[in-house]
Write a structure and sequence with these properties.
- By secondary structure, this protein is α+β, with helices and mostly antiparallel strands.
- The chain has 18 helices and 30 strands.
- The strands form eight sheets. Strands 11-15-16-23-20-19-17-18 form an eight-stranded mixed beta sheet. Strands 1, 2, 3, 7 and 8 form a five-stranded antiparallel beta sheet that branches.
- 36% of the residues are buried.
- The mean pLDDT is 93.
Length: 581
């Protein structure tokens, strides 16, 4: 992986060198290696760059690669670095250098005599070692991610060690375009956005609402079966709650603030639910006999995300979490985590994403975490042991923990091989301490509970973005917004259609959700049968019942599924539907 990172990082320099040769006086921002490739943020001044320019830039990059130019590191003082940046009119580099301490050792990388860039490295030895690459798109990016700063042009590229890996990735990307949840969301009438409502605030249609509520209810039912009780919390709270929890200091700039015009109090739209749940636990005395206490809530939270970082349902300002919190004793952690792991496995098996791995997310040495280091070490040890005990395919990663504790992040693989972080289990010794939570143990002494945070779907909006793309819009039968559509050949069969709908009206599915009434419609319009079937196929209806005079005469329905067609007797329709996945 390190070699691949060096290749991609070097390609960002090759990109910059090609741009400088082709466009002359440009100012460079940053050009890092990223997952699957690289990018460079560039200020082209008055020149406008689009995707149509990428072929020309890529051609020049290939010439630079073929030249086998050496990548050589050079260390300079801060003064020398600033002189270089000023001499070359690199205002963004000047800003980066000025932010460094006076005694900093600053490095440059020279690409032969062609190009020099401020850079820590690492890089390959020469430009011929960069593997196989392709420029893929042009986008806008604010300098340093600040919407109040300059808008730069970001050129993205992808790169791999082999031509086969590059081809496979590009093929995957083409498949991803056809599965894009924003495209399918519009085509399947699931959700929309409105400029009058605001960016990052999705509106769900009846069909989309059916889907999201089915998913939320399934998640809640799995946890309800395991002893979790529903709670409800308001959407605004005094900021004092988040100051006590520590969220205000860490994420205060992401809060939507609400000011009371009546008494001048400051409130915030809630960005998460855990502090609220601590107050329900603290609302009455608890003893060891009550432990563990398990709460769950599917509720919408609000975060003031930057407009440039919003994207469909993947990143929104209003996110609904299927949230859970367990308050338990230290001796109960193992059992409670196992309970949650089993819930995760069951849900993702049901939705067809059973290939799960677990990232054990630990703290780093940065000063951004709350709580005693010894508690963290103990908690991280317990998280690792839980992964081992539950047979998880796991890996460890520092710096990905929540600020209050380590966590198990479940990574699910979708139908085209992409990995997504969805469910999570987080161990927290910090928040119970900050809120002074306690219960009375067997000895009559006060004891501090441990808090376990869990979300099975995570953000329901983000889960749906993944799930829509995973299925390509062909949802499993049990959760399809419209499960059956009846299409008629002509009006002569309407009486028989009535017999069929009576059966559908009383059909209740019992997997995976009990008491799930069948969702169906009838298309008896004057359009041709071909048009009706085409409409149903475009909406990706799992089961289409075609009913003509012969079907009525024989007391059957002609069923079209995604992968097959068959005749089903009227008396067997209910049994047939209950067997569909």
């Amino acid at each position: 992986m390190k070699d691949l990172e060096k290749m991609r990082h070097t390609l960002s320099h090759v990109l910059a060198a090609a741009v400088k040769e082709l466009y002359g006086n440009v100012a460079f921002g940053i050009g890092p290696a990223i997952d699957n490739g690289f990018y460079y943020d560039i200020d082209f001044g008055d020149t406008k760059i689009s995707d149509s320019d990428l072929a020309k830039i890529e051609k020049r990059m290939r010439a630079i690669v073929s030249a086998k130019l050496p990548m050589e590191k050079r260390v300079v003082s801060k003064t020398e670095a600033l002189n270089w940046a000023r001499d070359n009119n690199q205002k963004y580099k000047i800003e980066l250098i000025e932010d460094l301490p006076e005694d900093s050792e600053i490095s440059f990388y020279d690409m032969g005599d062609l190009f020099t860039d401020l850079c820590k490295g690492p890089h390959v030895k020469n430009t011929s070692e960069v593997g196989f690459f392709k420029l893929i798109r042009v986008a806008g990016a604010y300098w340093r991610g600040d919407e109040k700063r300059e808008m730069l042009t970001r050129i993205y590229g992808v790169a791999f060690k082999t031509e086969e890996d590059l081809a496979a990735y590009l093929k995957q990307q083409e498949e991803a375009k056809s599965r894009d949840h924003r495209k399918l969301g519009k085509e399947l009438d699931l959700f929309c956005f409105s400029d009058l409502v605001g960016a990052g605030l999705p509106l769900f249609t009846p069909r989309g609402t059916e889907l999201r509520e089915l998913m939320a209810n399934y998640s809640l039912s799995l946890r309800g079966r395991e002893g979790f009780k529903k709670v409800w919390t308001p959407h605004i709270t005094k900021t004092d709650l988040y100051k006590t929890s520590g969220h205000y200091a860490k994420f205060g700039d992401e809060l939507f603030m609400v000011h009371s015009q009546v008494n001048g109090e400051d409130f915030a739209l809630k960005p998460m639910n855990c502090p609220h749940h601590t107050q329900i636990f603290a609302s009455r005395p608890r003893t060891y006999r009550d432990m563990p206490v398990r709460y769950m809530e599917a509720t919408t939270d609000y975060r003031d995300e930057k407009t440039g970082e919003l994207g469909g349902l993947s990143r929104v300002r209003s996110l609904t979490q299927d949230d859970s919190h367990v308050f338990c004793r230290k001796s109960q952690i193992k059992e409670e985590v196992a309970r949650l792991v089993n819930i995760v496995k069951e849900l993702y098996t049901t939705v067809g994403m059973q290939k799960l791995s677990a990232r054990l997310s630990y703290r780093s040495d940065e000063d951004k975490y709350l709580g005693d280091k010894k508690l963290w070490e103990m908690a991280q040890g317990q998280i690792k042991q839980a992964a081992i005990d539950n047979g998880l395919d796991y890996y460890e990663q520092e710096g990905e923990a929540a600020f209050y504790g380590p966590k198990i992040d479940f990574m699910a693989e979708d139908a085209i091989g992409r990995e997504h972080q969805l469910a999570t289990i987080q161990l927290d010794f910090v928040m119970p301490e900050r809120f002074g939570l306690e219960f009375t143990n067997e000895k009559g002494e006060k004891e501090r509970p441990v808090m376990i945070h869990h979300a099975t779907l995570g953000s329901i909006e983000r889960f749906l973005s993944v799930f829509i793309e995973h299925t390509g819009g062909w949802f499993p039968f049990w959760c399809a917004p419209e499960q059956v559509r009846i299409v008629t050949v002509n009006d002569k069969v309407l009486d028989y259609v009535g017999e069929v709908t009576k059966i559908l009206d009383k059909t209740v599915l019992d997997k995976p959700l009990k008491y799930n009434e069948l969702r169906f419609t009838v298309d008896d319009s004057a359009d041709s049968l071909g048009k009706k079937i085409k409409r149903a196929t475009e909406m990706k209806i799992p089961a289409v019942f075609v009913i003509g005079p012969k079907d009525a005469e024989e007391k059957v329905v002609s069923v079209r599924l995604k992968d097959r067609e068959e005749k089903v007797k009227l008396s067997k329709i209910e049994d047939f539907l209950k067997k569909l996945d």
